[in-house]
């Protein structure tokens, strides 16, 4: 589960990366592909905190399962 309480209502790509554990490059790829809604504020790309859980909870859960399966297979 994402702990987003310390973040503002609109997050920068760096803040999204920090909160999710993904790279800034991956966040920008998700924005470019339309996977992640965003808003422009001048030149800044901002992601609404309100969409973070619905977009990232399934993604992060799947990544944890994949890592667990890989570590189990190597044991």
Topology, pairings included?
Layout: E1 10-12, H1 13-20, H2 24-33, E2 39-41, E3 44-48, H3 49-74
Antiparallel strand pairs: 1-3, 2-3
> How is the largest sheet built, in terms of strand order?
1-3-2
* Largest pleated sheet: 3 strands, antiparallel
**What is the class in the CATH system?**
Mainly Alpha
What oligomeric state do the depicted chains represent?
A: single chain
For the record, the count of structural domains works out to 1
How far apart lie the N and C ends?
27 Å
**Which class best fits the helix and strand makeup?**
alpha+beta
CATH architecture heading? Orthogonal Bundle
Basic shape? globular
Helix residue percentage: 55-70%
Mean pLDDT across every amino acid position: 83
Q: What count of helical segments does DSSP give?
A: 3
């Amino acid at each position: 589960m994402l702990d987003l309480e310390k973040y503002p209502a609109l997050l920068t790509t760096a803040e999204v990366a920090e909160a999710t554990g993904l790279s800034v490059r991956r966040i920008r790829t998700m924005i470019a592909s339309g996977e992640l809604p965003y808003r422009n504020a001048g030149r800044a790309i901002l992601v609404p905190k309100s969409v973070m859980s619905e977009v990232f909870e399934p993604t992060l859960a799947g990544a944890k399962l994949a890592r667990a399966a890989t570590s189990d297979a190597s044991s």
